[in-house]
Amino acid sequence: MRVLVGGGTGFVGRNLARLLKSNGHEVTVISRKPGPGRITWVRQKQEIPSKGLPPCDAVINLAGENIMNPLQRWTDKFKKEVTNSRVETNRVLARAIASAEKPPEAWLVVTGISFYAPSETAEYDEDSTGGDFNFFSRLVRACEAAARIPGDSAAAEVTREAVVRSGFVLGREGGAFPSMLLPFRLGLGGPIGSGCQYLPWIHVADLAGIIAHVLESKNVTGILNGVAPSFDTNKDFARALGAALNRPALLPLPAFMVNAVFGSERGEMLLEGVKVLPRRTLESGYRYAFPELGPALRDILSY
Ligand SMILES: NC(=O)c1ccc[n+]([C@@H]2O[C@H](COP(=O)([O-])OP(=O)(O)OC[C@H]3O[C@@H](n4cnc5c(N)ncnc54)[C@H](OP(=O)(O)O)[C@@H]3O)[C@@H](O)[C@H]2O)c1
Protein backbone atom coordinates (compact mmCIF):
# COMPACT_ATOMS: atom_id res chain seq x y z
CA MET A 1 0.00 0.00 0.00
CA ARG A 2 1.08 3.62 -0.54
CA VAL A 3 0.45 5.23 2.85
CA LEU A 4 0.33 8.97 3.58
CA VAL A 5 0.99 9.86 7.23
CA GLY A 6 0.18 13.34 8.60
CA GLY A 7 2.45 14.08 11.59
CA GLY A 8 4.56 11.05 10.63
CA THR A 9 7.76 12.72 11.87
CA GLY A 10 6.68 12.33 15.51
CA PHE A 11 7.17 9.60 18.10
CA VAL A 12 4.30 7.34 16.99
CA GLY A 13 4.81 8.24 13.33
CA ARG A 14 8.46 7.14 13.24
CA ASN A 15 7.61 3.80 14.86
CA LEU A 16 4.66 3.35 12.50
CA ALA A 17 6.71 4.22 9.39
CA ARG A 18 9.34 1.62 10.36
CA LEU A 19 6.68 -1.06 10.81
CA LEU A 20 4.80 -0.19 7.62
CA LYS A 21 8.02 -0.25 5.58
CA SER A 22 9.05 -3.59 7.08
CA ASN A 23 5.58 -4.92 6.09
CA GLY A 24 6.29 -3.84 2.49
CA HIS A 25 4.32 -0.59 2.34
CA GLU A 26 5.49 2.76 0.95
CA VAL A 27 5.30 5.72 3.35
CA THR A 28 5.06 9.46 2.58
CA VAL A 29 4.93 11.86 5.51
CA ILE A 30 3.06 15.18 5.65
CA SER A 31 5.03 17.63 7.78
CA ARG A 32 5.34 21.36 8.33
CA LYS A 33 9.00 21.03 7.32
CA PRO A 34 10.10 19.88 3.86
CA GLY A 35 12.44 16.91 3.54
CA PRO A 36 13.04 13.67 1.64
CA GLY A 37 9.99 11.40 1.48
CA ARG A 38 7.75 14.25 2.69
CA ILE A 39 5.13 16.63 1.43
CA THR A 40 4.36 19.82 3.34
CA TRP A 41 1.21 21.43 4.60
CA VAL A 42 0.63 24.66 2.64
CA ARG A 43 2.08 27.83 4.27
CA GLN A 44 4.01 25.65 6.74
CA LYS A 45 0.71 25.33 8.59
CA GLN A 46 -1.99 22.74 8.97
CA GLU A 47 -4.02 24.09 6.06
CA ILE A 48 -3.97 21.84 3.05
CA PRO A 49 -1.49 19.29 1.69
CA SER A 50 0.24 20.89 -1.28
CA LYS A 51 -1.38 20.09 -4.65
CA GLY A 52 -4.19 18.06 -2.99
CA LEU A 53 -3.90 14.40 -2.11
CA PRO A 54 -1.13 12.49 -3.94
CA PRO A 55 -2.12 9.03 -5.26
CA CYS A 56 -2.29 6.74 -2.19
CA ASP A 57 -4.10 3.71 -0.81
CA ALA A 58 -4.35 4.81 2.82
CA VAL A 59 -4.17 8.04 4.82
CA ILE A 60 -3.37 8.30 8.53
CA ASN A 61 -3.30 11.45 10.66
CA LEU A 62 -1.10 11.70 13.75
CA ALA A 63 -0.46 15.47 13.60
CA GLY A 64 -0.92 17.48 16.77
CA GLU A 65 0.88 19.97 18.96
CA ASN A 66 2.41 18.18 21.99
CA ILE A 67 -0.19 18.68 24.77
CA MET A 68 1.96 17.63 27.74
CA ASN A 69 4.99 19.80 26.94
CA PRO A 70 5.82 21.07 30.46
CA LEU A 71 7.71 24.05 28.97
CA GLN A 72 4.57 25.29 27.26
CA ARG A 73 2.21 27.25 29.53
CA TRP A 74 -1.44 26.22 29.28
CA THR A 75 -2.71 29.50 27.78
CA ASP A 76 -5.74 30.13 25.53
CA LYS A 77 -3.33 30.64 22.62
CA PHE A 78 -1.66 27.27 23.18
CA LYS A 79 -5.03 25.52 23.64
CA LYS A 80 -6.11 26.95 20.27
CA GLU A 81 -2.93 25.59 18.68
CA VAL A 82 -3.52 22.19 20.32
CA THR A 83 -7.05 22.15 18.87
CA ASN A 84 -6.29 23.52 15.39
CA SER A 85 -3.28 21.28 14.82
CA ARG A 86 -5.58 18.25 15.22
CA VAL A 87 -9.04 19.38 14.09
CA GLU A 88 -7.88 21.32 11.02
CA THR A 89 -5.44 18.66 9.79
CA ASN A 90 -8.19 16.03 10.12
CA ARG A 91 -10.71 18.25 8.32
CA VAL A 92 -8.28 19.11 5.52
CA LEU A 93 -7.37 15.46 4.93
CA ALA A 94 -11.02 14.28 5.09
CA ARG A 95 -11.96 16.91 2.47
CA ALA A 96 -8.95 16.04 0.30
CA ILE A 97 -10.03 12.38 0.44
CA ALA A 98 -13.61 13.36 -0.47
CA SER A 99 -12.45 15.30 -3.53
CA ALA A 100 -9.76 12.82 -4.65
CA GLU A 101 -10.18 11.38 -8.13
CA LYS A 102 -9.38 7.93 -6.74
CA PRO A 103 -10.15 7.95 -3.00
CA PRO A 104 -7.92 5.80 -0.78
CA GLU A 105 -9.04 2.46 0.60
CA ALA A 106 -8.55 3.46 4.25
CA TRP A 107 -8.50 6.64 6.38
CA LEU A 108 -7.46 6.46 10.02
CA VAL A 109 -6.97 9.08 12.73
CA VAL A 110 -5.50 8.74 16.21
CA THR A 111 -7.30 10.50 19.07
CA GLY A 112 -7.27 9.75 22.80
CA ILE A 113 -9.03 7.92 25.62
CA SER A 114 -9.65 11.32 27.26
CA PHE A 115 -12.95 10.95 25.38
CA TYR A 116 -14.23 8.90 28.38
CA ALA A 117 -15.12 10.61 31.70
CA PRO A 118 -12.65 9.92 34.55
CA SER A 119 -13.90 7.34 37.03
CA GLU A 120 -12.41 4.80 39.41
CA THR A 121 -15.32 2.40 38.95
CA ALA A 122 -16.84 2.77 35.44
CA GLU A 123 -15.47 0.49 32.73
CA TYR A 124 -15.47 1.84 29.20
CA ASP A 125 -15.26 0.21 25.79
CA GLU A 126 -15.58 1.65 22.29
CA ASP A 127 -19.40 1.81 22.53
CA SER A 128 -19.37 3.91 25.69
CA THR A 129 -20.55 7.49 25.52
CA GLY A 130 -18.30 10.48 26.24
CA GLY A 131 -16.85 13.51 24.53
CA ASP A 132 -18.75 16.13 26.45
CA PHE A 133 -17.36 16.82 29.92
CA ASN A 134 -14.05 18.76 29.69
CA PHE A 135 -11.66 20.40 27.22
CA PHE A 136 -9.89 17.13 26.30
CA SER A 137 -13.02 15.06 25.81
CA ARG A 138 -14.57 17.79 23.63
CA LEU A 139 -11.28 17.97 21.71
CA VAL A 140 -11.50 14.24 20.90
CA ARG A 141 -15.11 14.62 19.81
CA ALA A 142 -14.20 17.60 17.58
CA CYS A 143 -11.22 15.72 16.06
CA GLU A 144 -13.33 12.68 15.26
CA ALA A 145 -16.15 14.81 13.81
CA ALA A 146 -13.68 16.76 11.64
CA ALA A 147 -12.25 13.49 10.30
CA ARG A 148 -15.61 12.22 9.01
CA ILE A 149 -15.74 12.04 5.21
CA PRO A 150 -18.70 14.11 3.92
CA GLY A 151 -21.55 11.65 3.25
CA ASP A 152 -22.38 13.02 -0.21
CA SER A 153 -18.94 12.13 -1.65
CA ALA A 154 -17.87 9.02 -3.57
CA ALA A 155 -15.21 8.41 -0.91
CA ALA A 156 -17.92 7.89 1.72
CA GLU A 157 -18.79 4.68 -0.20
CA VAL A 158 -15.29 3.34 -0.83
CA THR A 159 -13.00 4.58 1.95
CA ARG A 160 -12.93 2.64 5.24
CA GLU A 161 -12.88 5.08 8.17
CA ALA A 162 -11.28 4.21 11.52
CA VAL A 163 -10.31 5.97 14.73
CA VAL A 164 -7.80 4.65 17.26
CA ARG A 165 -8.30 6.20 20.72
CA SER A 166 -4.87 5.90 22.26
CA GLY A 167 -3.86 5.65 25.89
CA PHE A 168 -0.52 6.82 27.36
CA VAL A 169 2.06 5.64 24.80
CA LEU A 170 5.17 3.98 26.24
CA GLY A 171 8.47 4.13 24.37
CA ARG A 172 12.01 5.43 24.73
CA GLU A 173 12.08 7.98 21.90
CA GLY A 174 9.11 10.20 22.65
CA GLY A 175 5.92 10.86 24.60
CA ALA A 176 6.05 11.51 28.35
CA PHE A 177 7.79 8.27 29.43
CA PRO A 178 11.45 9.33 28.91
CA SER A 179 11.01 12.37 31.20
CA MET A 180 9.70 10.08 33.98
CA LEU A 181 12.80 7.92 33.95
CA LEU A 182 15.29 10.15 35.76
CA PRO A 183 13.39 10.49 39.06
CA PHE A 184 12.68 6.74 39.03
CA ARG A 185 16.34 5.93 38.32
CA LEU A 186 17.30 8.15 41.27
CA GLY A 187 14.85 6.29 43.52
CA LEU A 188 12.70 9.44 43.73
CA GLY A 189 9.80 8.13 41.64
CA GLY A 190 6.35 7.15 42.85
CA PRO A 191 2.64 7.36 42.14
CA ILE A 192 1.08 10.62 40.98
CA GLY A 193 -1.55 12.06 43.36
CA SER A 194 -3.51 9.29 45.10
CA GLY A 195 -2.15 6.69 42.66
CA CYS A 196 -5.58 5.00 42.58
CA GLN A 197 -6.49 6.45 39.17
CA TYR A 198 -6.39 3.97 36.25
CA LEU A 199 -3.63 4.57 33.71
CA PRO A 200 -4.54 3.12 30.31
CA TRP A 201 -1.20 2.61 28.58
CA ILE A 202 0.07 1.02 25.36
CA HIS A 203 3.56 0.04 24.13
CA VAL A 204 4.36 2.14 21.05
CA ALA A 205 4.99 -1.09 19.09
CA ASP A 206 1.38 -2.12 19.77
CA LEU A 207 -0.07 1.27 18.83
CA ALA A 208 1.83 1.08 15.53
CA GLY A 209 0.76 -2.58 15.29
CA ILE A 210 -2.95 -1.75 15.73
CA ILE A 211 -2.76 0.99 13.07
CA ALA A 212 -1.03 -1.38 10.61
CA HIS A 213 -3.57 -4.11 11.46
CA VAL A 214 -6.46 -1.75 10.64
CA LEU A 215 -4.89 -0.82 7.29
CA GLU A 216 -4.20 -4.44 6.40
CA SER A 217 -7.60 -5.89 7.50
CA LYS A 218 -10.19 -5.12 4.86
CA ASN A 219 -13.14 -5.36 7.27
CA VAL A 220 -12.05 -3.23 10.26
CA THR A 221 -13.79 0.14 10.62
CA GLY A 222 -14.96 2.52 13.34
CA ILE A 223 -13.55 3.17 16.81
CA LEU A 224 -10.83 0.98 18.35
CA ASN A 225 -9.35 1.67 21.77
CA GLY A 226 -5.55 1.76 21.54
CA VAL A 227 -4.80 0.54 25.07
CA ALA A 228 -3.29 -2.64 26.49
CA PRO A 229 -5.85 -5.26 27.62
CA SER A 230 -4.84 -4.99 31.30
CA PHE A 231 -6.12 -2.63 33.99
CA ASP A 232 -3.32 -0.87 35.87
CA THR A 233 -3.53 2.05 38.24
CA ASN A 234 -0.95 4.79 38.49
CA LYS A 235 0.32 3.06 41.66
CA ASP A 236 0.71 -0.24 39.72
CA PHE A 237 2.64 1.65 37.06
CA ALA A 238 5.03 3.24 39.60
CA ARG A 239 5.57 -0.14 41.26
CA ALA A 240 6.23 -1.90 37.91
CA LEU A 241 8.63 0.82 36.73
CA GLY A 242 10.48 0.76 40.07
CA ALA A 243 10.75 -3.04 39.83
CA ALA A 244 11.97 -2.90 36.21
CA LEU A 245 14.68 -0.43 37.27
CA ASN A 246 15.35 -2.20 40.56
CA ARG A 247 14.68 1.01 42.53
CA PRO A 248 12.16 1.95 45.23
CA ALA A 249 9.16 3.88 43.84
CA LEU A 250 7.36 5.04 46.94
CA LEU A 251 7.58 8.83 46.88
CA PRO A 252 4.21 10.19 45.73
CA LEU A 253 4.15 13.25 43.49
CA PRO A 254 1.56 15.50 45.16
CA ALA A 255 -1.36 16.87 43.14
CA PHE A 256 -0.43 20.50 43.85
CA MET A 257 2.97 20.02 42.17
CA VAL A 258 1.38 18.45 39.10
CA ASN A 259 -1.03 21.38 38.88
CA ALA A 260 1.80 23.89 39.37
CA VAL A 261 3.74 22.46 36.40
CA PHE A 262 0.90 21.66 34.01
CA GLY A 263 -2.01 23.86 35.19
CA SER A 264 -5.12 22.27 36.70
CA GLU A 265 -6.84 21.48 33.38
CA ARG A 266 -3.88 19.48 32.04
CA GLY A 267 -3.08 18.22 35.55
CA GLU A 268 -6.48 16.45 35.57
CA MET A 269 -5.19 14.16 32.81
CA LEU A 270 -2.53 12.85 35.20
CA LEU A 271 -4.49 12.98 38.44
CA GLU A 272 -7.70 11.36 37.20
CA GLY A 273 -7.95 8.12 35.30
CA VAL A 274 -10.24 5.90 33.26
CA LYS A 275 -10.61 2.16 33.04
CA VAL A 276 -10.67 1.40 29.32
CA LEU A 277 -11.07 -1.98 27.64
CA PRO A 278 -9.96 -2.50 23.99
CA ARG A 279 -12.97 -4.75 23.29
CA ARG A 280 -13.31 -4.02 19.55
CA THR A 281 -9.52 -4.05 19.07
CA LEU A 282 -9.39 -7.60 20.47
CA GLU A 283 -12.49 -8.68 18.52
CA SER A 284 -10.88 -7.37 15.32
CA GLY A 285 -8.20 -10.05 15.74
CA TYR A 286 -5.29 -7.85 16.85
CA ARG A 287 -2.74 -9.82 18.93
CA TYR A 288 -0.80 -7.66 21.39
CA ALA A 289 2.99 -7.98 21.53
CA PHE A 290 2.91 -6.44 25.05
CA PRO A 291 -0.38 -7.09 26.86
CA GLU A 292 1.19 -6.86 30.35
CA LEU A 293 2.89 -3.83 31.93
CA GLY A 294 6.01 -5.51 33.41
CA PRO A 295 7.25 -7.06 30.13
CA ALA A 296 6.36 -3.85 28.22
CA LEU A 297 8.51 -1.74 30.57
CA ARG A 298 11.36 -4.25 30.57
CA ASP A 299 11.34 -4.26 26.76
CA ILE A 300 11.43 -0.46 26.58
CA LEU A 301 14.24 -0.24 29.11
CA SER A 302 16.26 -2.87 27.25
CA TYR A 303 17.03 -0.68 24.23
N1 LIG B 1 2.14 10.04 22.81
C1 LIG B 1 1.06 9.77 23.53
O1 LIG B 1 1.16 9.32 24.72
C2 LIG B 1 -0.32 9.95 22.93
C3 LIG B 1 -1.45 9.56 23.68
C4 LIG B 1 -2.71 9.72 23.14
C5 LIG B 1 -2.86 10.26 21.86
N2 LIG B 1 -1.76 10.63 21.16
C6 LIG B 1 -1.95 11.25 19.85
O2 LIG B 1 -1.22 10.55 18.86
C7 LIG B 1 -0.73 11.47 17.88
C8 LIG B 1 0.77 11.24 17.71
O3 LIG B 1 1.41 11.40 18.97
P1 LIG B 1 2.99 11.54 19.08
O4 LIG B 1 3.33 11.19 20.48
O5 LIG B 1 3.64 10.85 17.94
O6 LIG B 1 3.15 13.13 18.91
P2 LIG B 1 4.47 13.96 18.51
O7 LIG B 1 5.71 13.16 18.70
O8 LIG B 1 4.36 15.27 19.24
O9 LIG B 1 4.30 14.17 16.94
C9 LIG B 1 3.21 14.80 16.38
C10 LIG B 1 3.59 15.42 15.05
O10 LIG B 1 2.58 16.41 14.77
C11 LIG B 1 3.16 17.46 14.02
N3 LIG B 1 2.71 18.74 14.61
C12 LIG B 1 3.03 19.25 15.82
N4 LIG B 1 2.47 20.46 15.98
C13 LIG B 1 1.78 20.71 14.81
C14 LIG B 1 1.02 21.79 14.33
N5 LIG B 1 0.84 22.89 15.08
N6 LIG B 1 0.46 21.69 13.09
C15 LIG B 1 0.64 20.59 12.32
N7 LIG B 1 1.38 19.54 12.71
C16 LIG B 1 1.93 19.60 13.93
C17 LIG B 1 4.67 17.36 14.12
O11 LIG B 1 5.18 17.08 12.82
P3 LIG B 1 6.02 18.18 11.96
O12 LIG B 1 6.87 18.94 12.94
O13 LIG B 1 6.82 17.31 11.04
O14 LIG B 1 5.02 19.02 11.26
C18 LIG B 1 4.91 16.18 15.05
O15 LIG B 1 5.97 15.34 14.62
C19 LIG B 1 -1.05 12.89 18.40
O16 LIG B 1 -2.19 13.38 17.71
C20 LIG B 1 -1.37 12.67 19.85
O17 LIG B 1 -2.34 13.58 20.34
C21 LIG B 1 -0.48 10.49 21.65
Give structural attributes.
alpha/beta; Rossmann fold; seven-stranded parallel beta sheet; globular; binds NADP nicotinamide-adenine-dinucleotide phosphate; SDR39U1
Please tell me about this protein's structure.
This protein is of the alpha/beta class and 303 residues long. The chain has a single domain, classed as NAD(P)-binding Rossmann-like Domain (Rossmann fold), CATH 3.40.50. The chain has 11 helices and 11 strands. The protein has helices at residues 11-22, 76-98, 135-147, 155-158, 177-185, 204-216, 234-245, 255-262, 264-271, 279-283, 293-301, and strands at residues 2-6, 26-31, 38-40, 58-61, 106-112, 123-124, 160-166, 168-170, 201-203, 222-226, 275-276. The strands form 3 sheets. It has a 7-stranded parallel beta sheet with strand order 3-2-1-4-5-7-10, with helices on both faces. The chain has a two-stranded parallel ribbon with strand order 6-11. Strands 8-9 form a two-stranded parallel sheet. Strand 1, helix 1 (11-22) and strand 2 (26-31) form a beta-alpha-beta unit. The two termini are 30 Å apart. Bound molecules: NADP nicotinamide-adenine-dinucleotide phosphate. The site of NADP nicotinamide-adenine-dinucleotide phosphate (NAP) has 26 residues, from helix 1, helix 2, strand 5 and strand 8. It holds the Pfam family Epimerase. Residues 253-300 form the DUF1731 domain. Residues 3-218 form the NAD-dependent epimerase/dehydratase domain. This is Epimerase family protein SDR39U1 isoform X1.
